[in-house]
């Protein structure tokens, strides 16, 4: 049994879960870039404007990390998640520029029990991250493992 | 012209560039998790040991961010990189546990000029991240845009 709201059984194909909003500051973009991706367009306003990104732009990996926080806050926080084996085909479709407000949603595409791990199933999601103009900035497919309600201990 | 070491023309298919070593501390794993992925197995030693990851394990997105730093230090720092449109098929194959030392390499798979962006070409890499036992912890394919030497301004 589990006291979590979201277990494998609750994540039916077609289910859509919305993300909350996240406004991205220049300071956050620069702090992430200094630590992980110090390319000029992620560190400096002028270099960003001179680049094909058109402004001080978040590292794509920073966008992924911010998306992960949105996914966590939206439902993983109260789920039986056991982690993920990877990412299928993530696309950074538009730059995330300082001052942008991100939002979006995830949709369950499919799910199946894992033969190799009794009591755990794999749920594949299509994640969509949008900006304040409703434009898609990032999309990806991503399978996540969840314990089943019937057998799941609290994760 | 560019004064960078690595432009589109220099990244020939088959070229392999090694990464330096990065040892991952528990403090780093917890700090990243608090900000971006607060699942118990990324925040707490005991929860990590109780999970299928087997120990205090870095968020997969933290592994991606650390890999990005290794890629940057290995050659992007002195390149005409213009950013990337996305990630193809990234796999988190083994957990990254506190105390692990990451290393690895990237290999150029293919490259082509971009018709839509004169003077810029797309180079597809296969990135491989390994641990201190030589096990693969992460692998992915990832296209990155580079200015050409012939026409490239300093990025």
From TrEMBL, chains A, B:
Pfam families: MaoC_dehydratas
InterPro entries referenced in this protein's UniProt entry, alphabetically: HotDog_dom_sf (IPR029069), MaoC-like_dom (IPR002539), MCH/BMMD (IPR052342)
Origin superkingdom: Bacteria
TM region positions: none
Domain MaoC-like, residue spans: 21-115
PANTHER family per record: BETA-METHYLMALYL-COA DEHYDRATASE (PTHR43664:SF1), MONOAMINE OXIDASE-RELATED (PTHR43664)
The protein's name: MaoC family dehydratase
